[in-house]
Design goal:
The protein is of the alpha/beta class. The protein has 2 domains: about 130 residues, no CATH class; about 300 residues, Rossmann fold, CATH 3.40.50. It is built from 20 helices and 14 strands. Helix 1 runs parallel beside helix 11. The chain is globular, with a radius of gyration of 22 Å. Probable carboxypeptidase. Belongs to the peptidase S10 family. Keywords: Carboxypeptidase, Disulfide bond, Glycoprotein, Hydrolase, Protease, Secreted, Signal. Its EC number is 3.4.16.-.
């Protein structure tokens, strides 16, 4: 039970933000446009996305559960250029999983077999938001294809299916093509999210036993910095308890993620000052909110509800105040500017997935595609400020590898905050990790990043990249995945070839 005085203090602060004098607001430089509904809408519009609905909840329509837990079909996208390969040889699949511990939820997924070897690892990718479809990454970051303006698909030379058997899942429920007919299936915390994903894996490997012994890795970015550690811990716990099919979990990778909010929100002002986004005087003003944010996060703890929502409001004044001064700077990549409300144009994805021929290929019928769900975003507010770092040391101690990577020009989940929580994490190898040298991460003879590693833990700062590393540095991100899953992340390939400058 939450301490009523603690909640009172937080709401008193919130009231102060909302109704304080202009002098006080000016003094700490606070912006007030951080309501979750406003933030969710802003997130969607910045990507040039316009989902018809806020959530995939089906009311008054007959979408009866299938008798099988998992219903999957071979996939051949229309408008795919230059394949000339039978669908059976491509090994592409799309399907629905009837979520076992739900009232009426179905989870949509894609599965792309490796272009290299079926013995390659199974890699699952989770997009953040929270509430954004993993198809964003599939078509614009590391999937097998890219979308042209005429809505044709071309092969992605640096798709992660070059080095892995690749899974994309629309989650939590209500995101993408995943849906329910019962609002009780909307998830609010990592327990619900990770249990759904774990149950999906059990059904997936039951359907694909030929892959059950492959190495398994969990990857993703942004708010998946919450999903990924919780999911990894759930898989590890299931393995230890001999629940169902053993999943050969080898590692998990977080890209520009939100994992330890107390440390990462504190880093906002430092990163913004270092990169010239704010002045020293603005830094000093905005910094006044940091201690209040830290207190709010402590009150949230692991079981908080009201205090967790309150901490979201308090802490996000730090970020929104920085952005109020940053103007049209793209907070996903501070090298770029946003034009009006548009920071990226991902609209071709929505157009493509709304085509009848594509829907027929996917087997989704007239199901709406919710590219990003404001409702899912707001449902996860009680989860936002929780610290997901706490479960990671136990995984490291048992030899499950963690890679944290971050593009250096991302503000919203910046490399500095990620580096700080990774260095602060207490585990048996902490001192050795902190003392380990930084070494160049080389691709084609040129430095693509700076790597620090010890034992099961690695941190990679990626050069010339923003929030979406696989989109900004596709070749480097594929090399990162390949070497990491092979246990060779810190090695310089002997056949590195020409340098980038020579190409």
């Amino acid at each position: 039970m939450e301490h009523p005085f603690s909640v009172y203090v937080l709401f008193a602060f919130l009231s102060l933000l909302s109704f304080s004098s202009a002098e006080f607001a000016d003094d700490i430089g606070l912006a007030r446009s951080n309501l979750p509904s406003v933030q969710a809408e802003k997130l969607i519009r910045e990507l040039n996305l316009f989902p018809k609905h806020d959530l995939n909840v089906i009311n008054g329509r007959d979408y009866a559960p299938q008798p099988k837990k998992l219903v999957e079909k071979p996939l051949r996208f229309p408008n795919l250029l230059g394949s000339g390969v039978p669908v059976e040889d491509l090994g592409h699949h799309a399907g629905y999983y009837n979520i076992e511990h739900s009232h009426a939820a179905r989870m949509f997924y894609f599965f792309f077999e490796s272009r290299n070897s079926k013995k390659d690892p199974i890699v699952i990718w989770l997009t953040g938001g929270p509430g954004c479809s993993s198809e964003l990454a599939m078509f614009y970051e590391n999937g097998p294809f890219t979308i042209a303006d005429n809505l044709t698909l071309a092969w992605n030379e640096y798709g992660w299916d070059q080095a892995s058997n690749l899974l994309y899942v629309d989650q939590p429920t209500g995101t993408g093509f995943s849906y329910t007919s019962d609002r009780r299936d909307i998830r609010h915390n990592e327990e619900g999210v990770s249990n759904d994903l774990y149950d999906f894996l059990q059904a997936f490997f039951a359907e694909h036993p030929e892959f059950a012994e492959n190495d398994f890795y969990i990857t993703g970015e942004s708010y998946a910095g919450h999903y990924i550690p919780a999911f990894a811990a759930r898989v590890h716990r299931g393995n230890k308890a001999n629940e169902g099919i053993h999943i050969n979990l080898k590692g998990f990778a977080i890209g520009n993620g939100l994992t330890d909010p107390a440390i990462q929100y504190k880093a906002y002002t430092d990163y913004a000052l270092d990169m010239g986004i704010i002045t020293k005087s603005a830094y000093n003003r905005i910094k006044k909110v940091v201690p209040v944010c830290e207190t709010a996060i402590k009150l949230c703890g692991t079981d908080g509800t009201i205090s967790c929502v309150a901490s979201y409001f308090v802490c996000n004044t730090i970020f929104s105040s920085i952005m109020a001064l940053a103007g049209d700077t793209n907070y996903y990549d501070i090298r770029k500017k946003c034009e009006g409300s548009l920071c990226y144009d991902f609209s071709n994805m929505e157009k493509f997935l709304n085509e009848k021929s594509v829907r027929n290929a996917l087997g989704v019928g007239d199901m709406d595609f919710v590219s990003c769900s404001p409702t899912v975003y707001q449902a996860m507010l009680v989860d936002w400020m929780r610290n997901l770092e706490v479960g990671i040391p136990a995984l490291l101690e048992d030899g499950v590898n963690l890679l944290v990577y971050a593009g250096e020009y991302d503000l919203i989940c910046n490399w500095l905050g990620n580096s700080r929580w990774v260095h602060a994490m207490e585990w048996s190898g902490q001192q050795q990790f902190v003392a380990s040298p930084e070494v160049p991460f080389e691709v084609d003879g040129s430095e693509a990043g700076v790597l620090k590693s010890h034992g099961a833990l690695s941190f990679l700062k990626v050069h010339d990249a923003g929030h979406m590393v696989p989109m900004d540095q596709p070749k480097a991100s594929l090399e990162m995945l390949r070497r990491w899953t092979q246990g060779k992340l810190s090695e310089v390939p002997s056949d590195s070839g020409k340098s980038i400058a020579e190409m």
